[in-house]
Amino acid sequence: MLTDVWFDHDGVEALRGISLSIQPAAVTAIAGPNGSGKSTLLAVLAGLLDPRSGSMSSPAQARRALVVQRSEISDRMLLTVREVVTMGRWSAAGPMRRLRADDRRIIDDCIEVVGLGGHRNRPLSALSGGQRQRALLAQGLAQRADVVLLDEPTTGLDATTRTVVADVLLTERARGATVVCVSHDDVVLAAADQTIRLDAGRVVPAGPDLLRTHQPGA
Ligand SMILES: Nc1ncnc2c1ncn2[C@@H]1O[C@H](COP(=O)(O)OP(=O)(O)OP(=O)(O)O)[C@@H](O)[C@H]1O
Question: For residues 101 and 109, what is the distance between their CA atoms, to the nearest angstrom?
Answer without folding.
Answer: 12
